[in-house]
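The protein record reproduced below.
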Amino acid sequence: MEPSWNLALNKIGVRSELFNSHSFTLPGFLGRIERRILFGPGVARIKRNLIRRVKKDQPDVTLFYQGHYFDRETLEKIRPYTFITGYHDDDPTGPHRSMLRYRHLLPALSCYQGYHVIRAPNLGEFMESGVPRVKLLRHSYRPWLHFPVSLNSSDQRKWGGDIVFAGHWEDDMRVDCLSKAIGAGIKARIFGGERYWKSAFPSEIYSKIKPVPKIFGEEYRKALCGAKIAIGFLSKWNRDDHGMRSFEIPACGVFLLSERTAVMKELYEEGREAEFFSSSEEFLDKVRYYLKHDEKRRNIAQAGYQRVISSGYDICSRMRQWIVDVEQWRSG
């Protein structure tokens, strides 16, 4: 997502340059190890180059998108030359956090002068970790990537289905929901990688949906637009109350059926702009109902599309909010 943030900032007239941390790690297998354990010659090279770059350019603001590579010592060295802010779309302070992944980030939080998070529990947790200014910045959709498309017959055969879910496996009700739907004869498409999904389903269920590849970009858009209903399961590992799919699906003009949360009910009017569920039984009931009622489904999909446009759920609007927040922090 870092390139998308950079592109969006430039689109709204903010001069922004991307520092590609990943380009400094070693190639191949050794690079994958470095990126996992956050240690090695490539990681050291990332830190040296960042310090050199900030000292040379002295940017008004340095944004660390997740910032897993950067320890407290690195941030202390650049702090005299720039305003340090961060953003994280996962849950570094949650109960399911990976201490290996966040072993540099968490001790360095007190060096940040501001931080944006996407979920309410992180607000107090980040402040308790020493960040003086923390605000919410919700997920978004990218208008140059997520928009309605009509599929030709070949793409419809490849991507089409009654329902689609594109995302990772978790040990929550998503497996039960999808199993019930598939067992009821509903054509489901699942994308997100075979490794965990294959073991999550009984063989007779998995045989009806395989393969389960990961998809991105244009393929992701086609998979959404090829379905009558797109599902928005929310990560319990990350304590999510909404997700990127919460905006990407309606932005593609597709009917959104999402887990019900207080935030989702703020984002969309239930039954008019999106539909929600809180159990596998309610999920199956609503899938069956809206597959039988095409006009109602299409009307809700259209209303959801209008909502994401009119409410500014796109990434450029989020970046305008980000700019306002950071300027307030810097002037305060």
Notes: The chain has a mean pLDDT of 93. The radius of gyration is 21 Å. Strands lie at 61-65, 83-88, 114-117, 134-136, 161-166, 188-191, 227-232, 255-259, 275-277. The first strand starts at residue 61 and ends at 65.
